[in-house]
Amino acid sequence: MPKKASKKKKVTPERLMQFGSAYAPPLIIGAAVSNKVFDTLESGGKTVEQVSKTTGASQRGLRAIMNALVGLELLKKDRHEKYSLTPESEAFLVRNNPGTLGGLFAMASTHLVPDWLHLSEAVKTGTPPVAVNREATGPEFFSVLVENIIPMSYPAARTLGQSLGLAKTRKPVRVLDVAAGSGIWGIALAQQSPLVRVTAQDWPAMIPTTRRITQKFGVADRFSYVGGDVLEADFGSNYDVAILGHILHTEGKDRSRKLLKKVFAALKPGGTIAIGEWLVNDARTEPLPSLIFAVNMLVHSERGDTFSFNEIKSWLEEAGFKKARKLQAPGPSPLVLATKPG
Description:
Helices cover 46% and strands 15% of the residues. By secondary structure, the protein is α/β, with parallel strands linked by helices. The strands form two sheets. The chain has a seven-stranded mixed beta sheet, with helices on both faces. A two-stranded antiparallel sheet has the order 1-2. The protein starts with 13 loop residues before the first helix and ends with a strand. The relative contact order is 0.09. The model has no long low-confidence stretch (mean pLDDT 94).
């Protein structure tokens, strides 16, 4: 019997056409945040004319982006041409809400996209247009970024504290927050028990930002600070917990291995290291957000990359840690935990 001709799936340009305008949604959302569209609609539905009167933005511009936001399902529009928030935009795009991502979208056009425009050159040379992992240039970038990514880290940090049983502790717990940035990882642990004390390490120019945010969360009296590069600063010793919240991807392989050995020395026997990262699988074929984040590291750092759990596990074991494991937590990837043998 003759074989039937196999049917090939028809290839269309539709997916590539979608990629061609993929730059638009974050910029549209950022423009809406900057022009206070979501903030203005928090009190209830409004027409374009009413939003224009409140914000001072043009009716033409507002109509264009607000209709696009309806298409993105971040606004609703009724038959009277009144626009209102969706549950998603109300929770995450109103600037005064504690879980807001509005600032992250607002900085897309000022701090993220401009560097990505140099991607072709970065691919050719292997170097970024501006290396934000350097102390000379990094604080200006990170002092804006760290507060805007608090909603990404805070739920995971809360989960970490719960897994460590901090709410039930009856003895002091010393925490080292490496390259603390906003301090949110240490803040979340400190909130779970008055017995938690946090040492936040970062570049000296970043520490005022950390201080301000710890004051905002009401735990500043339980924080102390160490300034300097992660491989040069004096961490101290005898910590119960050490946190590296999204740090290894900017440090790269070699510096990360050195850093893990240094953190091992700073922990007491039985202490726990907790690592937040954008994990990829061993073959580096998924998940897509972590693969894209590796490109972000190409654009923004000299050595940065994303790593797999098994890569980080091997570095932890090289440093002397045992029981490397994953902790499922909200965020881009599970947390990686390991223990210093007692």
